[in-house]
Amino acid sequence: MTTPLQTLYKQTSAEFEIKKSRFIGAIYPCATQQQAVQHLNQLANQHPNASHLAFAWRIRQPDGFIIERCHDAGEPSGTAGRPILAPLEGENIINAVVGVIRYFGGVKLGTGGLTRAYGNAAKMAIAQAVFQPWVEMTEFELDVDYSELQRLEYQINKCQGQIIDQQFSDQVKVRILLPLAEKQALMQQFVAY
Known about the structure:
Blueprint: E1 6-8, E2 12-18, E3 21-29, H1 33-46, E4 52-60, E5 66-71, H2 81-90, E6 93-94, E7 96-103, H3 110-128, E8 131-133, E9 137-144, H4 149-158, E10 162-168, E11 172-179, H5 180-189
Parallel strand pairs: 1-6
Antiparallel strand pairs: 1-8, 2-3, 3-7, 4-5, 4-7, 9-11, 10-11
């Protein structure tokens, strides 16, 4: 059975030292690649003297496709980015970026040691994190009479949705964001409008 998709509730980090090299793993929520890059830039600015900043992200697109990207940051090919990406895939985490900072301590770890160290930094950051199940949301418009607006607001709140916009004329045109699984039931309640 496949683990359901999950998203990060808030950013976390963890660090450890191995053979005088310090590794700091940090995981951040992000909905776009631009947000992922912003978080990585922020991490780089916090650690201007770091030797490396390797990273990986998994971001779900509106069409359902998941974009994955990883980068070794100058470490030998496949020893940093891929080991960071692996636990994101294994835990079925989306809309998250993991960055791992390395402060080189003067002792070479070898390719196996690097792979384990970067992977462990990512796993430790992920282990510290709090996740929530990912819920597919949908956005749509609905026209209702003024007399039904309060009932609509109640139903939207009940199913963890929100009103994004309202336009008032002879009826109220309401722009709604709510879980996709709730859309059909809500639409049926207000089908006459």
